[in-house]
Amino acid sequence: MNTFRLLTYLLAIAFLSSPGVLAQDALAVQSKGLQSRSSEQSGLLVMAHGGSDDWNQAVIDAVEPLRTEAPVAIAFGMANPHTLQEAVDKLEAQDVTRIEVIRLFISGDSFLEATEYAFHIRQEKPPGRFMHEPFPLRLNVPVQLSSRGLMDVTHLGGILADRTQPLMDNPENESVLVIGHGPGSDEENARWIARMDAMADSVRHLAPFHTVEVITLREDWTGKREAAEAAIRDFMEEEQAAGRSVLVVPFRLRGFGPYADVLEGFAYQADHNGFLPDARITDWIRAEFDMLKHLPPRSVTSSCEPIRTSSPSPGHTH
Q1: Whole-angstrom Cα distance, residue 176 to residue 249?
Q2: Which of 102, 128, 188, 196 could form a disulfide with 214 if both were Cys (CB 3.0 to 4.6 A apart)?
């Protein structure tokens, strides 16, 4: 190496080794990392059963405050892959880097396997018949999926108490009947009853009612529904014979369902709202969204191999 090249080499080493240059390089790397993190954007996809215009609007209203906090899309339908794909496309069009899916169902088991299959979390197509045949979605960003339903959140039982309070007049001579949709499986139905009963404690703490009873109608299952209807009518007859008034509160996301038909011929006071409208549902969606954002995604994009998981069988529930 000649003298000129040697001097050039030594000067270059001295320059690159100087603290100022190293500090600038470190700041550049740190800045790039911060920009990458700040560019991350989670989108919120809310799944809901869907129903009448009033039912759907109640969900839209509950989600509306969250639109100022993140890109939001709603997919109505019982894990309908077509509405799910539309919601995914809307969020991806807003340049989200991942999607957090909040399943706004009473039971966390509802349509879970079909949803996991749609989002590439479960590789095998779930068995059984479906209202909407499931298929894997087209995904360009990873997804995280909520697993809880509203009945897994005991403090939301306060909504049941708030629905009961305007109905009551003389609690000592009144009984409260909380009616839920219910699943087909006896084992799963037992879980429903236990969780409903825990949430109904808020009603028991509200006032000294004679009885606070919870029951599921199991309305989509022939044989199971008939037995449930008989139990409901037996309860109403016993309360009527004892001279007590009955206050009926639906354990549903929105509305009174088919309960008026089941209760035909009996006198009762009823709430017809369900859990919506109530700001606590919005708060729950927000809390679930914030929690999911801090978890690693459960699915990858549709161009990659799906992740295998195991989970309980879903019930056809609301």
Answers
A1: 7
A2: 196
